[in-house]
Design a protein that fits this description.
Blueprint lengths: L2 H4 L2 H4 L10 H8 L4 E2 L11 H10 L12 H11 L6 E4 L2 H12 L5 E5 L5 H8 L3 E5 L8 H7 L4 E7 L11 H9 L6 E5 L3 H11 L6 H6 L4 E6 L12 E4 L2 H10 L7 H10 L3 H24 L3 E3 L5 E5 L4 H9 L3 E2 L1 E2 L8 E5 L3 H17 L4
Parallel strand pairs: 1-11, 3-4, 3-5, 5-6, 6-7
Antiparallel strand pairs: 2-8, 7-8, 9-10, 10-13, 12-13
Helix pairs in contact: 4-13, 6-7, 6-12, 10-14, 14-16
The chain binds pyridoxal-5'-phosphate (PLP).
The site of pyridoxal-5'-phosphate has 13 residues, from helix 6.
Length: 374
């Protein structure tokens, strides 16, 4: 029997996840030194405290880690004002999303999300054999009323990215309050807050309330809040994320988590990162300044920019966005073309350090001079 016949149809239909181009590959292809501004990583790297803790933890890597990273779960629970059984630590938040799919979705049920949202939601939904309903965007972000209208009796999960990746849009705490009041009891809302610290800081400066999502968990609402150490904490390479939700649901999800998913090194790094407010502050302050600088600079270049609440800026050129991205790479800057996300004219650039942002804008200016946006 051929593998094509052995693999179930819903798995055969899956597309691959295409990550941002790795730095090494881009440098090999272009023959020049590149800066990666394609995967929303922290330009300052991990906190020095996390580095030290991870170096120390390396001495213990001959031992299996403690399953479920209990020390980290306890610390997160303490910070968030919940008990540890509300916390599910996973190898980044992507596996946590996958566990939502495998726990709550099955053939016959459906999940809802928005067009132009995180590319992992369709994968985890379809991998579970369920159907995905994609709601058109409103102003490049989630249309929460549209999502409500899409709910039917077979809906089990709603994936909400707040802020949204790749468009950087956000809905406020009050908008989410009003939305959740109308979500029926047979549906779980996943509130994916991968860019939590960036959005919180930007929202405080802009005078709006970003999120009080953990309050919903404490109120017993059907939500799972998801966070990650990959972004502000700069630990994308050691894979630590977590979900906050009802202990009964977290317990079911833990059953589909592969054993020893998080590592000794990752847990040590994450724990230490939670104690490094200086690094976090430096990261969010740099990001807010970079957001302003890039949005302004991009508008000056005549491209359409969506205001960001995260650590990246989404902008639209024309259908030659992949060509522009390639030309940028030859100037040493890797950005993310969004054709694979169904946005052929879209590009996403991660906010970097001031000199990286400046380099990117100069490179884009040169590229657009040669190849103006049609
Ligand atoms: C909206 C959103 N959710 C989740 C993630 C997953 O991050 P990780 O698996 O590194 O925790 C990302 C990463 O880019 C994201 O943009």
């Amino acid at each position: 029997m051929k593998y094509d016949e052995m693999v179930p149809a819903h798995i055969r239909a899956l597309g691959p996840y295409v990550p941002g181009k790795p730095l090494r590959q881009a440098e090999e292809e272009t023959g020049i030194k590149c800066t990666k501004m394609a995967s929303n990583e922290n330009p300052f790297g991990p906190s020095p405290r996390a580095l030290e803790a991870m170096e120390h933890a390396l001495r213990e890597v001959h031992l299996y880690p403690e399953n479920g990273a209990p020390e980290l779960a306890k610390k997160i629970a303490e910070n968030e004002g919940v008990t540890p059984d509300h916390i599910l630590v996973t190898g980044g938040s992507t596996p946590c999303l996958d566990m939502v799919g495998r726990t709550l979705l099955a053939p016959g049920s459906n999940a809802i999300t928005s067009e132009r949202s995180f590319i992992v939601y369709p994968i985890v939904t379809r991998a579970a054999g369920a159907t995905l309903k994609l709601v058109p965007t409103k102003d490049n972000g989630f249309d929460l009323d549209g999502v409500l209208n899409a709910i039917d009796t077979d809906t089990r999960v709603i994936f909400l990215a707040n802020p949204n990746n790749p468009t950087g849009t956000m809905f406020t705490a009050q908008e989410l309050d009003a939305f959740l009041d109308k979500v029926p009891d047979h549906v779980v809302a996943v509130i994916d807050e991968a860019y939590y610290d960036f959005a919180k800081y930007l929202a405080e400066r802009r005078g709006v309330e970003y999120s009080h999502s953990v309050r919903y968990v404490n109120e017993g609402r059907k939500v799972i809040v998801m966070r990650t150490f990959s972004k502000t904490h700069g630990l994308a390479g050691v894979r630590v994320g977590f979900g906050i939700g009802d202990p009964v649901l977290m317990n079911y999800m833990a059953r589909v988590r592969t054993a020893f998913q998080t590592t000794t090194v990752g847990e040590a790094g994450a724990l230490a990162a939670l104690h490094d407010d200086d690094h976090l502050q430096r990261t969010v302050v740099n990001n807010a300044k970079g957001a302003e600088f890039l949005e302004h600079g991009l508008r000056e270049l005549g491209v359409h920019v969506t205001p960001t609440w995260a650590n990246f800026v989404f902008f639209e050129v024309d259908d030659n966005a992949p060509g522009i991205s390639q030309a940028l790479e030859h100037s040493g800057v890797i950005v993310r073309p969004l054709k694979g996300w169904g946005i052929p004219q879209g590009l996403r650039v991660t906010i970097g350090k001031p000199e990286q942002n400046q380099n990117f804008l100069s490179a884009l200016r040169r590229v657009l001079e040669k190849e103006p946006v049609r």
